[in-house]
Specification:
Elements (H helix, E strand, L loop, with lengths): L4 E4 L8 E4 L2 H12 L7 E6 L5 E3 L2 H9 L4 E6 L4 E4 L1 H14 L5 H11 L3 E4 L5 E3 L2 H6 L5 E7 L2 E6 H13 L1 H4 L19
Antiparallel strand pairs: 1-2, 3-9, 4-8, 5-6, 5-7, 6-10, 9-10
């Protein structure tokens, strides 16, 4: 069907592109599929079974299945496990480290801390991933977990650690959020006064 133009809802800055069908379509469709986690925001409590399997939240499973994504890359973040689509992991984690100086000690520490424990995991037909023992140990994951889908990644926390972290964040929110980028004030329309 060469010569037929199609519109792709591209999540990049362009907001969408008209392209010719064929090879370019596959490239753009694959590019858009990488960011499927960006469009799924959810939080879920779950359990890791005795074999280390973790069921992904239904909204995320559905989005990944629709995008044809059947595996994730899971690594340790220091507090929890983070999971990315393979392309997103490369773009956001591996590629910036590859661009650093191979002999720089800081780069090597990041490589050892983040890349070394990273594991490719397959999503099974039931929508579960098998968390390797090393990652379960690093994340201090026993059975009860909280899964957050945020900022194009999954966070997998030990549930009690998440509760403690979230409580601390909410308690210190006014202090910590001062460092966020300032937004331009929007023109507001006043509410009508009550009579």
């Amino acid at each position: 069907m060469a010569g037929v133009a199609s519109f792709v809802d591209d999540v990049g800055e362009s907001g969408g592109k008209w392209i010719q069908s064929g090879r370019e379509w596959d490239t753009v469709a694959a590019y858009s599929a990488r960011f499927v986690m960006l469009r799924v925001h959810c939080q879920s409590n779950s359990t890791v079974d005795t074999k280390g399997r973790l069921a992904l939240p239904r909204p995320l499973r559905t989005a990944l299945e629709e995008a044809g994504i059947d595996r994730l890359v899971v690594t340790f973040s220091g507090d929890s496990l983070w999971a990315f689509t393979p392309d997103d992991f490369y773009e956001r984690v591996e590629q910036p480290l590859e661009e650093g100086d191979l002999w720089d000690e800081d780069v090597q520490e990041w490589v050892h801390a983040v890349l070394a424990p990273a594991q490719d995991v397959t999503i099974d037909k039931a929508g579960r991933i098998l968390l390797p023992p090393l990652l379960r140990e690093l994340g201090d994951l026993d059975r009860e977990v909280t899964i957050n889908s945020v900022q194009r990644r999954l966070e997998i926390w030990d549930r009690s650690a998440w509760t403690e972290h979230f409580t601390s964040v909410m308690k210190n929110r006014p202090k910590r959020m001062r460092g966020l980028p300032k937004r331009q004030p929007r023109e507001t329309i006043p509410f009508p006064e009550r009579r």
